[in-house]
Amino acid sequence: MEIDIDTIGEEIGLFEAIRTTRAIRRIKPDPVPPELIRKVCEAGTFAPSGGNRQPWFFIAVTDADKRAHIAKLYRQTFSRYIEPARKAAEDPAYQDAKRRNMNAAIWLAEHLHEVPVHLFVAGWTRRGRPQSQALLPAIQNILLACRAVGLGASLTTSHGAHQREIDDMLGLSEETPSIALIPIGWPIGKYGKPPRRSVDECLFFERYQERKADQDLPPPQ
Amino acid sequence: MEIDIDTIGEEIGLFEAIRTTRAIRRIKPDPVPPELIRKVCEAGTFAPSGGNRQPWFFIAVTDADKRAHIAKLYRQTFSRYIEPARKAAEDPAYQDAKRRNMNAAIWLAEHLHEVPVHLFVAGWTRRGRPQSQALLPAIQNILLACRAVGLGASLTTSHGAHQREIDDMLGLSEETPSIALIPIGWPIGKYGKPPRRSVDECLFFERYQERKADQDLPPPQ
The domain A14-201: what is its CATH number? Predict the structure, then answer.
């Protein structure tokens, strides 16, 4: 596939990209040009950070053996918390959208070793703690940029239970822990508007109005 | 000013918006149409969140008395941590970019009561703790959307020291604490590429390579 790095994705509008960026978990095994990974990571570097500290590092793993090892560890963690969800999904009252999400998450776990790029986002700690908050705006830029250039991506943190072991493999010290894994590749499915509450349920002027429970707010957890 | 809510900001490209969104802290006192605040908050709702829980609430404060009170509390916190920075900035070796940032932050603190919209982002707690991480991608979408429609905005957390008092005023309970304040309005200055490290200093394939201290990495703090 011929790709012009300078022009790819440049035509899509900001609002269009924002409205049609959804987690894409079903990914083809085909490789992704490194220049394209560089382009989406560059978008990440434009995110804001406190004091403009830019604490981020991006480690793109494409080596097949490393990806297989990461996928094995990922599945160990994933299987622990997917079982309750699988059980809950047997209830016919379980929401279809949630069931579709769960099935896509299971697909990703089972195929993670085939996803061509495992992009880890890491960052300097601050006062001894990971600066996850400082990395999330950069991650959101990356997810939007993936959408723009035609890549599928999703934000995961399930590698966290094995983070130290994975970070050793990535050459990351305790001063620069990884906080997210973004599996990236060419999507099998399509982009589309993700299911969301209307902004009119979330936005208030001057003062928050408590809503009644029957108005379908997400429960506090 | 005539504004067409459906078309405003729709022409700007995603990458162009990402590359030219910087913290805009010098803001005119002119009012902002509520429909425009709704549009940028709607962009926020398309962000991802764990389990699609969408824990966010947006409270847009435009009332002058409330803004004056918020600004007073903001300045109390701000003045405590700006003094060391002011002192450090007297050193001629202090970076110009940092000095400019500091001066803009001081300007914002001194004029916050005049900034027409104080947008607070709040969210459901999870296991008793604020879900800041779940709100940052939504905040990033909002900052990008502000850029697209021509508004200036920046991400602040200095209201945090008085968060309980402010949340009481906003009608927010301990179950939905505010975690950020985004002052929004028409910019006095211009958009532009923010100063950032090159992506080539942040992106690694397969394995992170420790860099030498003379390569101008931000120090761990």
Answer: 3.40.109.10
